[in-house]
Amino acid sequence: MLKRVALVAGLVGALGICAAPAGAQSTNCNKSGQCVFAGGCPMPFGDDGGNTTCNKSAEGCEAKIGGLVAKTVAAVIKCHGKQASAAFKTANGKPTTFDEETCENTAINGPKGFVASAAAAQAKDTTGACGCVGVSTIAGLIGSILDSQNQLVFCDGSTPIDPSGDDTGTFNPADSTGFKAMVKAGTCVSKLVATWEKCHATFAKNVLKNKVDPTDPGNTDEICEGDGDSSNPKGAVEAFQACMTKLAAKGLPACVQVGSPNYNAILATTQTQLDGANGLVYCASPSGAFVQ
User: Fold this and answer.
1) Residue 1: inside a domain, yes or no?
2) Residues contacting residue 41 through CB under 8 Å, at least 6 positions apart
3) Is the pLDDT of residue 211 over 80?
4) Who's near 65: CB < 8 A, 6+ residues apart?
5) Over residues 111-120, mean pLDDT
6) Is residue 175 part of a domain?
7) Radius of gyration over alpha carbons of the chain, in Å?
8) Position 269 pLDDT exceeds 90
9) Residue 2 maps to a domain
10) Would residue 217 count as lying in a domain?
């Protein structure tokens, strides 16, 4: 699941100053790295937050950070899974401890964590435009959202995963099959987030390469994200549904199976956070030549 501030880019033509050639019908970018004007420069992310850019260096940096968001989400979800496994063993007479906070902090703030890796990506952007990415804000959101929404996956029984209450979620100590399936469901969520971020990156890159027809309402990232039907079997939503359906056959508790309130809440939260806060990642000046 993500907002903020850019630096002056310089070298107008190379960085994509907005141009308005007569009769242009595209909001994509031309080979000179310039926006081709038509109602916006260049194309926004449909109903998502953020905007695309004709600044190739900034776009590559933003896509890299979007991928880091997905990677960090997956790492934090693994931390939760290990924490839950320790609690499950303890509840079944095998006292086990796991420092989830350290695990999570390492994934987000460690030497190779999200903040450091995002800063490294920004440093490689020769134009400085990727400095707008709200790295610290995103870092805070990853931890707080995943901690508070953990109960959407770990929803069985009444034994808390974290007695301190910092992380939400419960399990049934008597149902090892269901518990293992809930842990695996975390992997399904990680893949959902990763695919969603790839959809955003692909759309931004296609605009940069002038491959998007602005007159076609279907040319957005929405088809890639999916809508839960059969229109795009490889869509993020469809793939998530398939992943969770397989787990249902392996004992996944009904509270998080496909169609359950928790399942629907996971999809809604993913869309709200990744689409609504997309501007935290895709924030560079559309033309690459001015500070937002």
Assistant:
1) no
2) 18, 27, 35, 54, 286, 287
3) no
4) 118, 121, 122, 130, 133, 135, 138, 281
5) 98
6) yes
7) 21
8) yes
9) no
10) yes
